[in-house]
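Notebook B, p. 112. Complex prediction, attempt 2.
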Amino acid sequence: DTGVSQNPRHKITKRGQNVTFRCDPISEHNRLYWYRQTLGQGPEFLTYFQNEAQLEKSRLLSDRFSAERPKGSFSTLEIQRTEQGDSAMYLCASSLGARGGGDTQYFGPGTRLTVL
Amino acid sequence: RKEVEQDPGPFNVPEGATVAFNCTYSNSASQSFFWYRQDCRKEPKLLMSVYSSGNEDGRFTAQLNRASQYISLLIRDSKLSDSATYLCVVMIAGKSTFGDGTTLTVKP
């Protein structure tokens, strides 16, 4: 399967703990995106990378969130000092990064985080 | 006001019906537009891109009106398998903004 993969699929943690999620994009895709989705809402943009460069980060993202894509391949999203409000599905997507629009994103299955 | 707004529905229609969804966006600089489909507890999947001239893919037709800043999705001859949440997506320079989705239930 050459689609986007995410690990773990589920994570339960206690408030105050740190968690890290991994995303492996489709191999030839330059762009990688992170989103957060809660029930009844659409995916909320968190950040995206063009190769290893983090080009944009949502203003909604607190300093507790950090993402990396060190070699322009897989990416990690870390949440420090988790809060109950962080409970959500964390989605990763990748794309070719086509110029002039038409940049289709392919999503991974997500990591469901529950903070107790 | 949200950047991308959709009627949440739900839309409950019988098989074979035609149903239309609208989506409005606030940023006139938006460059790319898409419709995604999301099944319950699954990831979003691309349904179709939306082009200025309008485009059709089988039973699905998408339209873009830049002047009024809205996009639409028309589904003809609805099937039970069309039941899902339909997400409108607007993109500017790599940043994507999703609507909260419109839920469609097609009943026998």
